Amino acid sequence: MIIASSVTKKFGRFKALDNVSTTCNKGSCIALIGPNGSGKTTLIKSILGMVVPDSGFISFNGKNIRKEWTYREQIGYMPQIGRYPENMTISQVLSMMKDIRNKQLGLDEDLVKAFGLPALLNKRMRTLSGGTRQKVSAALAFLFDPLVLILDEPTAGLDPVAAEILQEKIIAEKEKGKLVLITSHVLSELDEMVTGVMYMQEGKLLFHKSIQALREDTGEEKLARAIARIMVK
Amino acid sequence: MRKIVKYVVADILRNRTVLVYTVALFAAAFTVFSLEDNNSKGVLSLLNIILIIVPLVSIIFSAIYVYNSSEFVELLVSQPLKRKTIWLSLFSGLAFSLTLAFFAGVGIPVLIYQPNLLGLTMMAVGSLLSIIFVAIAMLATVIIRDKAKGIGAAILLWLYFSLLFDGFVLFLLFQFADYPLEKPMIAISAMNPIDLSRILILLQLDVSAMMGYTGAVFKDFFGTYSGISFSILVLMSWVAVPVWYATRKFNKQDL
Amino acid sequence: MRSVLTICCMLSCFFAAAKTITVGKGRAFQTITAGIAAAAGGDTVLVYPGIYREKNLLISKSLVLKGIDFPVLDGEHRYEIISVKASAVTVEGFKLLHSGVSSLEDIAGIKVYDARDVVISNNILNDSFFGIYIQNGTNCIVENNLLTGTAKNEQQSGNGIHSWKCDSMRIIGNTVSGHRDGIYFEFVKNSVIWRNKAQNNIRYGLHFMFSNDDMYVSNIFENNGSGVSVMFSKNIKMFSNYFAENWGDASHGILLKEISDGYLQGNYFEKNTSAVYMEGANRIRMTYNSFRNNGWALKIQASCMDVELERNNFIGNTFDVGTNGTLVQNTFNNNYWDKYEGYDLNKDGKGDIPYHPVSMYSMIVEKYASAMILFRSFITTLLDKTEKILPVLTPENLRDNSPLMKKAF
Fold this sequence. Notes:
- The structure holds 3 protein chains of 3 kinds.
- Chain A is about 30% helix and about 25% strand.
- By secondary structure, chain A is an alpha/beta fold.
- Chain A has one domain: Rossmann fold (3-Layer(aba) Sandwich), CATH 3.40.50.
- Chain A has a 6-stranded mixed beta sheet, sandwiched between helices.
- Chain C is about 10% helix and about 35% strand.
- Chain C is elongated.
C-alpha cells in the first residue's frame, strides 16, 4: 500500500533519512521504533508530503506522491503535538475539518463520543489542556474512516483511560483491514496492537520484521525486551 | 480555497490585535479630522498614518500570524489539500482581513470628511499598501524559518521601505544634482511601494506645487492614464511577485 | 486754455440740435459707413440688427455709434473693424467678428487713436487679433465688453484690452478670454481696472509694464498661462482680486518684478503654483490677503526689500514661503499660518514663539527641484522637524514674531 524506495533526506549536514526502503501493507499495524532523532517523524512526514525527500520516492497505492495531494484523503494523521487555531471552539474545528475534507456522511465518531468531547464542544482551543488536545487530534484522525492511520506518539499526554480507549480503537481498525503506522516510546502498550516493527537508527531503517519473526529472533515475548536485546547487540 | 480563506479570516477577525488596530485607526482618523479646523491638515496626518502605520502593522502582524499558525498550516498540509491552496488562502485571508480593518478604521472618517478623489485615492493606496506588506511579510517568513529572526527582518524591511530607501534617494539627489534626474526618479520611485503611493496621493494633495517644473514632469507622467495604470501595475506586481515567489518556495518547503 | 475750449465745445454740442440717424434694412441708411458720413458731431447713429461687412469703419467725429440687439460687424479676417480717431466717441452694443490679423500692425477689433473721453461699452468681440486697443487715450472708459479670442500661441496673438500711453482710463466689468494677455497696460497712469474677469489667456491675465499710479480692484484672474504680471511700475494698488489655478513652472498668481510702493490688500489666492512671486520688489505692503492651497504662497527672492506682510491668512499651502537666499530684509508680522504649532500662554491671541514660514524642504526643493518627489516622506518630515529645532539651512531672521493663533479675518 505504501512503498518507500531509497528515500534520503538531509537537513543541512544531518541525515534524517538515509536510503530508507520499505513496504507497508493493509491489515497490518506497524510500530515505528527508534531512539530520539532517528528519523521516525521525518519518515511519517515524508509519507504525508510534509517533508520532500532529496532523493528516492514514496508511492501510495502505486502512485508517486510527489506533487499529488488527493491521496491524503485516505490518511488520518495524528501529530505529536496538535495545534489548532486558538480562537476556534472544538465544534468549529470539527466542522472545519469536515468542511475541508468535504465529507459530512459516513463519519466515524466513536472516539468523539468515547472521549466525551460533545460536552466540551463550545470550548476554545486555547483553553484546552494538552491531553484534551490530543483527544481532539485522535478523534480527527479517525473521524473520516481513512484507509491508513498515521499516529505520532498517540498516547503521549493521554490519561490511562483515554489511552486504553485509543488502543482498543486502533486494534479494531486494524481488524477492519486498515494500515496503521504508530510511533511510540511506550513499547509496552504496543504489544497487543502491532503486527510488525520497523526499527530506525540515525536515519537508517535497521529492520522491518513481523512481530513473530522478531520474537523468534530474539527469543523474547515482550516487545520491550526484544528491542532492548537488539539495542544491546 | 474559499473554505480555508473563510477559516483564516474568521480566525484573524477574532484576534484582538486586528480589532485594536481597527479601533485605533478609527480613533486616529476621527481625531485628526475633528481636531483640525481645516481638513487638509487632517489629511496630512492621515497620510502619515497610511504611509507609516499601515505598512508597519501589516508586515509585523502578518509575520507573527504566519509564524504562529505554523502548526495549523502543518495540520492543513496533512489534509488532502494543495500546498498552493493553503498558502494562497493564508495570504488572501490576511490581506482581506487587514484591508477590511483599514477600510473600517479609515474609510468611514474619510467618507465623512473627504468624500472626494483625494479620499478615494487614499483609500485605494492604503488598501494596496496593506496587501503589499502582507505579501512581503509572507515572503520573509517563508525564507526565514526562525520566528524571532523573521519578525526582526519584518521590522527591518519596514524601516528600509519607509525610511532608509528615501534617505538613499535623497543622497542620490544631492550627489547627482547637476543631472536631469526627473525621469530616473520615476523609475526609482517604482522600487518602493510606499514612495509610489505617496506620489499618487501628492498629486491630489499638493497639485499646485506639483505643477512646478519638476513636479510637472511627475504630474505629466503620473497624472496621465498610462501613468496611473503604470503605478497600479507596479503596485500590483509588488503583491504578485512576492506572493508568487513565496508560494513557489513554500511548495518545496519541509514542515 | 484747453479746459475753456472743452467747455465751449460742450456748450456748442448742447445747443446744436443732436440728430439721430438710423441704419439698417428699410431704414434711412443701408450701411453704417453712409450713416456715419451723414452724421455730424454730437449725433447718434443707431444701427439695427443685421450683418454688416463694411471693411473698416472710421469714426472721426464725436458721435454715438449704437447697436440695437447686437448687429454684427464682420472683419472677414482682414480689416480693423472700428477705428476711432476723434474724442468723445461712444461705441456701444455691437457684435464684432473676425478682425484682421497682422504681424506688422496691431490690428484690433476696436482701436482708438489719440483721443479722449471715448466710451466703449457692451460690445461682444469674437475672434479678434487685438480686442480693444487704446493708443494714447485719456479719460476713456472700456466697460462691460465680452472678448473671446482664439489665440493658440504667444507669437500669433494679440491682447484683449490693450492700453498704450494712456492716462485716467477706466476698465470696468469686461470679460476677456483666449487672448495673449487679458488686459495689457504699458505707460498707463492714474487708471482703474475694476471688476473684470480674465480667464484662459495664453500669457497673463493682466500685464503691467512701466505704468504708475494705477489701481486694480475686484478682478478675477483664473487659469491664465502664468497669472498676473506687474513689472517696472510704481504705486500700484491691488485690492480684493481673485487669483486662481494659475498652474505651471513659471506660473504664479501674481508676479511682482522690479516694482516699488505697491499695496496689496484683501486679495484671494487659491491653487496657484506660486501665489505671489516677488523679484526686485521694494516697499510692498501686503495686508488681509488670503492664501489657500497654493504650491508656494509666497516666493520672495533675496533681491526684495522692505516687503511688509501683516494680517494675512496662510491656509493649506504646500509651502508658505520660499526664498533663494538667507539675507532677509522683509518683515512678517501678525499673520495667521495654519502650520504654526506654537502656543499662546498669555492669551493675547498671538503665539509666544516665532513662526518660521520657510521650511527646510522648500529650501531643498529650491536648490534640487527633483527632490519634490520625496516631499512628505517620513525622512523629509524628520529633517523638517530637526531643522525647526536647529535651523541650519533656513534663514533665521525670516520669521513672524507674533503669529496669530486664529485667522486674521
